[in-house]
Amino acid sequence: MSRSIPFADLSGTTAEIRAEVEAGWQRLLDSNQWIGGGVVEQFEQQWAGYCGTAEAVGVANGTDALHLVLRALGIGPGDEVLVPANTFIATAEAVVLAGARPRFVDVDPDSLLLTPEAVAAAVTPATAAVLPVHLYGHVADLAGHREIARRHGLAVVEDAAQAHGATRDGVRAGSAGAAAAFSFYPGKNLGAFGDGGAVTTDDAELASTIRSLTNHGRSVSDRYLHPNIGINSRLDALQAVVLSAKLRRLDEWTARRRDVVAAYRERVAGLPLRLVEPEIGVESAWHLLVARVADRDQVRADLAGLGVDTGIHYPVPCPEQTAYAEWADGEFPVASRTAREIVSLPLHPHMTIDEVDVVCEALAKVLQSAERP
Asked: Is the dihedral of CA 171, 184, 136, 254 positive or negative?
């Protein structure tokens, strides 16, 4: 196959915003306001409005967003936080950085998301919070998680790093828990030109505490006083310019992603693979299009030979990572099994239907070349 299909291609989104970003950066060059300032405050207001929350706090990255939310909620040593076993390592990492213990929980075999039922079964007297992850852009059952949390006195913190603009039953990701953490890593649906992140919340006091923690624990009223032990985790003005320009186009780009996924669905019907679909009531952001196949590694190699690049999100569950072995107190059969089956197919908002055809023709050739369950 002569045509090569990348897993992701950021060139289209960059081209759309290039002129606007260059103009915004020129204004920054004239102002010399590189940290904080009006452009960061403007983006924070825009992002809060988009997510439907009262507050948004820009931070340096998505990991810091999670870590700082937990700290601002008073979660730390002696506390447990329930975390899905199949998430990106940063979810568990943030819990450890806050001084708490990640308690891994297996996920639903169809959605691959953390369920309220699994959370209810995992709660212990030490549990302080639950951290549902909107994996692949599919929103978890937040209403169910809130009910379990209410019964046990837990905080619900959304890991919305992959769910920019996604909804469940009309409720937008980032607006349903005590707070939510977003990543603006370049490959995300709303991505910066480097690292970036944000916290969204309706709790003004929580937002104020997080603002202090992001800025060395500084007092919001006196810059020379530091009532908290904080870190340096501020969203750069350069990135805020990029994010504001992209945010104006995010809904359009999400709609394009959904069109691409619809084309995939039509073309892979009948092939020996299974797409990981959102649950009923979810309008996914489709950050990733993940399929489950037998003999995944060989399938990826065969696709690469035909010019189709793929990814894996994620090949090693968190409890199986060496650094987290001390917290791996149980079996996680769904996470362990599906980690060997999942493959992320090419998907981005500027992907054409012709490119989908190329990928699906390669899939058909690879999957039908051998007997696969």
From this structure: positive
